[in-house]
Amino acid sequence: MPRIPDERPLSPQPGIIDELRRRLPTASVLSTPAELAPYECDGLTAFRQRPMVVVLPETVEQVQTVLRLCHAARVPVVARGAGTGLSGGALPLEDGVLLSLARFNRILHIDPDNGTARVQPGVRNLAITEAAAAHGLYYAPDPSSQIACSIGGNVAENSGGVHCLKYGLTVHNILRLTLIGIDGELFEVGAEALDSPGLDLLALMTGSEGMLAVIVEITVKLLPRPERAQGLLAAFDSVERAGAAVARLIASGITPAGLEMMDNPAIRAAEAFVHAGYPEDAAAVLICELDGFNAEVSFEVMRVRELLLDAGATEVRTARDDAERLNFWKGRKAAFPAVGRLSPDYYCMDGTIPRRELATVLKRIEALSEHYGLRVANVFHAGDGNLHPLILYDANVPGELDKAEDFGGDILELCVQVGGTVTGEHGVGVEKLNQMCVQFDSDELTQMHAVKAAFDPHGLLNPGKAVPTLHRCAEFGAMHVHHGELKFPELPRF
Amino acid sequence: MTDISEHDAEQALIEQVLAAADAGTPLCIRGGGSKDFYGNPARASRTLDCATHRGVVAYEPSELAITVRAGTPLADVEALLQANGQQFPFEPPHFGPAATIGGMVAAGLSGPRRPYAASVRDAVLGVRLLNGRGQALGFGGRVMKNVAGYDLSRLMAGSLGVLGVLLEVSLKVSPAPVGRMTLVQEQSLSGALALMRRWARRSLPVTATAWSGGRLSVRICGSEDALAESHRLIGGLPLPDADRFWQDLREQRLDFFAGEAPLWRLSLPPATPLECLDAVCAGDDPGADQLVEWGGAQRWLRGDLPADGLRAAATAAGGHATLFRAGADQAAPAAIPVGGVFTPLQPVVLRLHRNLKQAFDPAGLFNPGRLYPEF
């Protein structure tokens, strides 16, 4: 099992459990091993740690109480939504309080005239869209876990989804947050309007992985349901050609609602699982969705079809109806569990690269796959360059998890090397701390720590996540050299 | 292809920042000076001239992103994008021929397309900046999706230079629309607000709206069929030379903006009723001194209006009010309301602003007082 990355000295203060019990309803404080077990990990199950105590407050005042107590006693706090995160951002601390926002599950107000919804952080992403449907509106960001993931977690991670190519990430689709600082003070950032005075703290809070403040209310933007959505599926006999088609499509001036790529291993896994009718002999498929005003979609569908054929697609299917469009998506949406059937375990990566580097990066991943002796399937938000290679391994084979992690680390460093980033939408959490040392230098990391201290001077909110200590980076650098071969000698190190 | 001159002044800027830090001299960061009028006056006598740090660092149209040095003229970059069939989705106002990319990001102002596409801040992908210690730091990146570390790059948009000196900015660009058309109809302000809300509830290809002096203008973009169909739904008569109208609106060259009266900007939830200002703007014709854009979300007011009353009304509606141009006596302290031109911050939020200022610029070198008098 990987080591817990938090480097703080432990300072267990079990006395706080009694204090919490005195201040909160009995059912809001969990501390027996059986009660704690469900909270020991999030969607990144390789990392597990039971918290000292779990609290499930129901009101803003109760959250303030918890934070004030923790602040006074210097006890660290990890906020948690639905626990579907893939980078260990909600991994508890042995001596810490796990603050679950699960009971903040109400949609407070839908304002169809202003196109907004005011919601509590524990509301499920999809529940917002379901509640807005009566007004012909929806919430655009759609992470694949949207039936389960919470909107508070989406904000903390700046989640994306298959439609963020056209509609943006969480940061582009929220207007206002109500937060509580570690000292228990309530404050608001953003506004019900399109902008707010002062620094853009709304942007800073989004994706800050629960390290700056705890979110207790969110105003999201709602968009009108597109009049029409149209799906296309194109097959290619090489990933290079598929990659080139993506670049041409994007350059053509059309912005699809979604543009996804799957490579052959992913196609075959998905096809075996859900029988979506994908061409199993294709080296890659592209799934393209166009949506919006009916007349515009008609025009775009014709252009995209021509363009894909011209770019060398061996086959282009245009969905005849919504059922067929959803069928195109079925395989893509089931890709992760489909790959899960091929292997006892898989490890999902999340780098983003400039689109032009796609073919190069996929070739290097193939070479790494041979080097490590582990299979890999690629699913890819092609339109915005966000790769999700799935590394197949078996945790029961000694050493395979370590190999998978090293392989994953190499992929992320490769992403940085070609001008990309180590995480497009899953967050750093505990998972990509080492790769942060590759993407940022010590001055940059120091600046990030200073920003953290501006909100949380004692480092009590989710400590040890998202931004590595310089000490850790020095050790990580040393480890790489120790192996005898510096992987990317052209990269600056310290 | 547009030629954009190249000059890397990063080292020189670092040296000037370090010298200012040594001497304890605050700096007024300046690109082209086109937005000198905006914000509060900075308490700095020395100017850090960033306009010499210019040039395109990376631009590949199929990546839909461009990286440029902060002193690059905005007009040059827009010409380069146009030559490649692209544009900034937020249609930034220039407010003068010397406007730079750095000033565009630091001011954080967006034009007519903003509610229908993106804001400057939305389009920021990454920055390189100098902090108050003279360290050159990169945050964000050049790719569309990036959640590595805190989003310190979007934080720079609209920061008016109080956190650092922008060196380089990576921005998302978008394809320029194939076809466009502007439709005009006679409408009262309340009628216009209702129509703009109705259009916002449908997936129409609307990319700009504006109401002024009894005329509602709406721009639609798309294919020929989409234009014809949305014209049928929206109504109104096509406006000739419409690009010029939207440019004049963006640059505040329309008649509404002429003269010396103070100009207020109200940023409101778009459906905010006209009556929200009844207590402030007495008069029979509520639209007389207003220009409304962004589907109702941005409203401009002219006149010597009471700052407190406007702010209270805007805040009650869920938005805020900014004294955008203080009028003729801009230099006179009396022209600027107590607390500055922007709506004052909640005490907790003000404290966080000060802490952030301290985190980036501990000696208080950069544009002190420009955003808020307190830091």
TrEMBL record, chain A:
<keyword id="KW-0285">Flavoprotein</keyword>
<dbReference type="InterPro" id="IPR016167">
    <property type="entry name" value="FAD-bd_PCMH_sub1"/>
</dbReference>
<dbReference type="InterPro" id="IPR006094">
    <property type="entry name" value="Oxid_FAD_bind_N"/>
</dbReference>
<dbReference type="InterPro" id="IPR016164">
    <property type="entry name" value="FAD-linked_Oxase-like_C"/>
</dbReference>
<protein>
    <submittedName>
        <fullName>FAD-binding protein</fullName>
    </submittedName>
</protein>
<dbReference type="Pfam" id="PF01565">
    <property type="entry name" value="FAD_binding_4"/>
</dbReference>
<dbReference type="InterPro" id="IPR004113">
    <property type="entry name" value="FAD-bd_oxidored_4_C"/>
</dbReference>
<dbReference type="InterPro" id="IPR016166">
    <property type="entry name" value="FAD-bd_PCMH"/>
</dbReference>
<dbReference type="GO" id="GO:0071949">
    <property type="term" value="F:FAD binding"/>
</dbReference>
<dbReference type="Pfam" id="PF02913">
    <property type="entry name" value="FAD-oxidase_C"/>
</dbReference>
<dbReference type="InterPro" id="IPR016171">
    <property type="entry name" value="Vanillyl_alc_oxidase_C-sub2"/>
</dbReference>
<keyword id="KW-0560">Oxidoreductase</keyword>
<dbReference type="InterPro" id="IPR051914">
    <property type="entry name" value="FAD-linked_OxidoTrans_Type4"/>
</dbReference>
<keyword id="KW-0274">FAD</keyword>
<dbReference type="InterPro" id="IPR016169">
    <property type="entry name" value="FAD-bd_PCMH_sub2"/>
</dbReference>
<feature type="domain" description="FAD-binding PCMH-type">
    <location>
        <begin position="47"/>
        <end position="225"/>
    </location>
</feature>
<dbReference type="InterPro" id="IPR036318">
    <property type="entry name" value="FAD-bd_PCMH-like_sf"/>
</dbReference>
<dbReference type="GO" id="GO:0016491">
    <property type="term" value="F:oxidoreductase activity"/>
</dbReference>
UniProtKB/TrEMBL annotation, chain B:
<dbReference type="InterPro" id="IPR016169">
    <property type="entry name" value="FAD-bd_PCMH_sub2"/>
</dbReference>
<dbReference type="InterPro" id="IPR006094">
    <property type="entry name" value="Oxid_FAD_bind_N"/>
</dbReference>
<dbReference type="InterPro" id="IPR016164">
    <property type="entry name" value="FAD-linked_Oxase-like_C"/>
</dbReference>
<feature type="domain" description="FAD-binding PCMH-type">
    <location>
        <begin position="1"/>
        <end position="176"/>
    </location>
</feature>
<dbReference type="GO" id="GO:0071949">
    <property type="term" value="F:FAD binding"/>
</dbReference>
<protein>
    <submittedName>
        <fullName>Glycolate oxidase subunit GlcE</fullName>
        <ecNumber>1.1.99.14</ecNumber>
    </submittedName>
</protein>
<keyword id="KW-0285">Flavoprotein</keyword>
<keyword id="KW-0274">FAD</keyword>
<keyword id="KW-0560">Oxidoreductase</keyword>
<dbReference type="InterPro" id="IPR016171">
    <property type="entry name" value="Vanillyl_alc_oxidase_C-sub2"/>
</dbReference>
<dbReference type="GO" id="GO:0019154">
    <property type="term" value="F:glycolate dehydrogenase activity"/>
</dbReference>
<dbReference type="InterPro" id="IPR036318">
    <property type="entry name" value="FAD-bd_PCMH-like_sf"/>
</dbReference>
<dbReference type="InterPro" id="IPR016166">
    <property type="entry name" value="FAD-bd_PCMH"/>
</dbReference>
<dbReference type="Pfam" id="PF01565">
    <property type="entry name" value="FAD_binding_4"/>
</dbReference>
